[in-house]
Amino acid sequence: MKKSNISIFVPHIGCPHQCSFCNQNTITGQTKAPTPQDVADTVETALRSNKNNTFEYEIAFFGGSFTAIDRAYMLSLLEAAYPYVKSGKATGIRISTRPDFIDEEVLVLLKKYGVTSIELGAQNMNDKVLAANMRGHTAEDVRNASALIKKKGFDLGLQMMTDLYTSTRGLDFATAREFAKLKPKTVRIYPTVVLKDTYLAKLYESGKYKPCPLKKTIALCADLVEFFESHDIEVIRVGLHASEEIKNNMLAGGYHECLGELVISKMMFNRITQLPPGEHQVFINERSISKLLGNKKSNLAALEEAGYKLDIRYNNALKPNELRIV
After folding, report:
1. Rounded to two decimals, what is the model's pTM?
2. How far is it, in rounded angstroms, from Cα 261 to Cα 297?
3. Which domains, and CATH codes, for the chain?
């Protein structure tokens, strides 16, 4: 059975800070805060569409700092979602929040209402980078919150942003190494996108912030995914979800509608080029062939130019995105 999220977006209302990159209305595509009835309606709609029990659902509250919103409102949303967990119609509840809004008291409440996974918007583990982007928390806050979340029996997820203002490739990798020490179950990687009406937009327009070109963003993310996977950490998302709001409000940055697929394609290219040029048999799940070939067969062309001759064969017993090279 496939796993899927029933996503409910809770906009910026919970966040006490306006970070350099943040325009939450653009990111979530909504300004209205959901009501408990909205939660129930969203879940019921998803359940009705799952007639053949194709999906195993997790209810996910995204878009804001869930534990920073008004406590009564937070509980009302959880009370609307929890019956679906209790009845077995959902496997659990996932939330995203800030590391400085996690303590023992709130974790007890979250556990009571069926929350199973907590994602922290850590973004970077360098205090100077965090301060430059007006995050309002420190790397130590991330460490402390992560330890407490795991101690209380929740699955830990960490979210990082690459190419933040004043960050570098080296600092982004240092963040990845710090994440690995915290042993999260999952990670999301979000390359920085410059959105209108943000502090970062002002920095960009004044020339003080120069975003990383997309090609370098893809290469960096490919290396980061390889790093996390080598530490048994699942990368569940690369890049912001595609939306008209982002398209219409983006000024620059590491955004592409198919960024995740481009990153996987780059990873496959890297794995092949670790071997010497020549003839190689490559076994791949048929569903992943477009990623191996690359956008407009760019991987294939670059490999042929570098002296690689591939005999591509399908093996659908392999996992999606898995390669076996002989």
Report:
1. 0.94
2. 13
3. 2-257 (3.20.20.70), 274-325 (no CATH)
